[in-house]
Specification:
185 residues, alpha+beta, flat
Length: 185
């Protein structure tokens, strides 16, 4: 996932890869008022009341970096039925690998036919980074954005004027019914 404003993300915490060791270091991040306002604007929601993360960053297979942790927060979205504000709690886990451009770890295993086989239930593929910095704040923002409810709804609210039709109300026409009105010339 890439941020639309990659040069100046609204929530940023650069981590120098050269300073990362095999032993995990713990990083605690919390978005301030300005960052929460910018994130709400980027995500097109009413507001971000809280956003924080506790991460562990360590080396992975010599030149890679692994970031694990938990993102938590509270956001305010508009209800899809009433458009009233709805608070949503964010609670997402992060477990992401990063490898530098040109790394041997970039080679992905293929089957006998040369096709790349991915396990949809398996771990995500590593992200590629360039330079000597990984932005942990942007990663937290991405995982928080993925945890947003795409259809927030106030508890107990339903579409009252919406009636869904059933097969009894709307039966499928027979294949031959389409030919009924067809006339030969």
């Amino acid at each position: 996932m890439t941020h639309p404003n990659r040069d100046n993300p609204p929530f940023s915490f650069p981590v120098k890869v050269g300073h990362v060791s095999v032993n995990p270091i713990e990083i605690k991040l919390s978005a301030d008022e300005r960052e929460r306002t910018a994130l709400a604007r980027d995500w097109d929601i009413v507001g971000v009341n809280e956003l924080s993360a506790v991460l562990q960053v360590n080396r992975w297979k010599k030149d890679g970096v692994r970031i694990r942790g938990k993102v938590s927060g509270v956001v305010v979205q508009s209800c899809i039925v009433t458009l009233e504000p709805v608070e949503t709690v964010i609670d997402a886990d992060i477990d992401q690998l990063f490898i530098p451009e040109g790394s041997k770890l970039l080679r992905l295993p293929a089957n006998d036919m040369g096709e790349l086989v991915l396990d949809p239930d398996g771990p995500d593929l590593p992200e590629v980074f360039s330079g000597d910095t990984i932005d942990a704040g942007a990663i937290v923002a991405e995982f928080a954005a993925l945890a947003l409810d795409p259809y927030p709804r106030k508890p107990g609210v339903a579409f009252e004027s919406y009636i869904e039709s059933t097969e009894a109300d709307d039966p499928k026409p027979s294949h031959f019914a389409a030919l009924k009105n067809w006339k030969k010339d």
